[in-house]
Amino acid sequence: MSVKVYIPCDAAALSVGADDVARAIAAQGGDDVQIIRNGSRGMLYLEPLVEVETAQGRMAYGPVSPDDVESLFAADFLAGGGHPLGHGLTEDIPYFANQERLTFARVGVIDPLDLADYEAHGGLSGLQAALKMTADEIVETVLDSGLRGRGGAGFPTGIKWKTALAQPDGQKYLCANADEGDSGTFADRMLMEGDPFCLIEGMVIGALGIGADTGYIYIRSEYPHAIKTMRQAIDLWENKGLSGWNDDGIPRFKLHVRVGAGAYICGEESSMLESIEGKRGQVKVKPPIPAIKGLFDKPTIVNNILTLGSVPYILANGAQAYADFGQGRSKGTQPFQLAGDIKQGGLVEKAFGVTLKELVEDFGGGTHTGRPVKAVQAGGPLGGYIVPHGFDVQMGYETLSEAGAMLGHGGIVVYNDTTRMTTMAKYAMEFCELESCGKCTPCRVGAVRGKELIEKIEQGEEVAANIDVLEDLCDLMEEASLCAMGGLTPMPVRTAMKLFPEEFTEPMKTAAE
User: Fold this and answer.
1) Which residues pair with 148 in a beta bridge?
2) N or C: which end of the chain has fewer CB within 10 A?
3) Which DSSP letter does residue 354 get?
4) C-alpha angle with apex 220: 219 to 223, nearest 5 degrees?
5) pLDDT value at 181 more than 90
6) What is the dihedral of CA 391, 189, 262, 395, to 10 degrees?
7) Are the C-beta atoms of 414 and 340 separated by less than 8 Å?
């Protein structure tokens, strides 16, 4: 009987040679091995991670290169034999064992495109529960769970759904926003590549809740593997009739994948909807909000991938089971993504309330270079900086806001002591300049002027006066920008100036000398 060997097909694992490892193991193992391409467990520092199914559980070996395969067989790794690359049982690795995996419970465990495997590991339970409920009951369950938008805004999902449900019967849309553009984030991609049916199930439940019959998954073009996987998963789902059938043979909830060109602004919901319609991705003035007048001027719900991926658990286990995780108004779990100069980068799903120190030091293991941590940017390229003496902050929407940062999409990027914070502040303005949709002047022009001001400060040109003008410019961008793109750009600039003032005033002292 052949031994099951799991080798990820996740893009991160593929980038470091997972396909070559799979071919090498297949060639040497022959009929003795059955290779299953799973998603990543999220321990990206161990990729390619090879797991072998044994009587005790799945044994982990990694990071494995093709050159390691011969020694693995010599060590009888198919029977769980010891090897320098061995980590014991995957479930016992501290990085993995200390997580609370709700949304990512199946990622890295199952074959992503095997519906039977999905169902055997709890899939479809949420949908089965939803089919026994009214639309009002579905929406109330999501509302009672405390689930908030995981894309960054943190708006209560149940309230958004309730607004769409209250609109007159007729054409409604449900859209999944997979335009994952924040620096250091990859959770959306991991879920789509590792457990695509979870997203589909969440969307079908959402469609039942608001009365939608058409859905769109908007994925940026930089995610070719996720695009391919989602399209295959939709075909498998619909061929099984899991969305039901209309009299004309069309699924009751028809799903489509739409590929975006990679514009960061299309992560904003109204820009994304414009892009789906075939228009230039630009922010629309609100009101009306999309839940009332969205895609093709019809009521539309736009949710992040992680938001929709949390819904099956909530419906399967009840609102309270989900709300029992977390703290305050931050309920449930958040998949945090560790990147930058970090020793153990990857995905960590934890209940809200975990501290930044635990994430960076306990899970991340500190810096990869061994240099001291200078600052962490939380919440993507528009998020604020947090310095080590503030690492005791609990990760949650309100607690991070009080610390001058934000949760965003859960991205955490670590910078060491060689980083120049004036450079990082200038980068924030440059990023906004490049990615602005151009519709409003504070963002379009403000970012250019902000970059110029920081360049003048770096050169020691009228530093004190230019710092004052930069502060005024930040006020203007925050208060007058049409969307969060321009409104949040000042956050990394201001936190850099507040936490590292000497780096901004130093050119003034140098010029005086």
Assistant:
1) 156
2) C
3) B
4) 90
5) no
6) -20
7) yes
Say if strands 346-351 and 333-340 run parallel, antiparallel, or are unpaired: antiparallel
- Whether the ω angle into residue 112 lies within 30 degrees of 0, i.e. cis, is no
Phi, psi torsion values for 114, nearest 5 degrees: -110, 105
Is-contact 387 344, C-beta < 8 A? Answer: no
- Within 132-253, strands assigned E span 173-178, 214-220
Q: What span, in angstroms and rounded, lies between the C-alpha atoms of 35 and 19?
A: 11
321: tokens are 């089971």
CA dist., res. 141 & res. 55, Å (int): 39
What is the pLDDT at residue 76? 95
Tokens of 229: 């996987």
Length, in residues, of the chain: 513
* Residue 4 DSSP SS3: strand
Residue 479 CB neighbours (<10 A): 10
**Is residue 396 within 8 Å of residue 336, measured between CB atoms?**
no
* Rounded CA separation 420/425 (Å): 9
Q: Alpha-carbon distance 188 to 409, whole Å?
A: 9
12, 181, 182, 286, 484 from 186: Cα distances, Å: 9, 9, 9, 29, 21
Tell me: the pLDDT tens digits for 42-78?
A: 999 999 999 999 999 999 999 999 999 999 999 999 9
Model confidence pLDDT, tens digit, residues 94-110: 999 999 999 999 999 99
- Which token pair is 211? 């009365």
Quick check: 132 pLDDT over 90?
Answer: yes
Which band of pLDDT confidence, cut at 50, 70 and 90, is reported for residue 247?
low
Which DSSP helix (H) or strand (E) runs through 350?
A: strand 346-351
pLDDT of residue 250: 72
Locate the DSSP E strands across 179-299.
214-220, 254-260
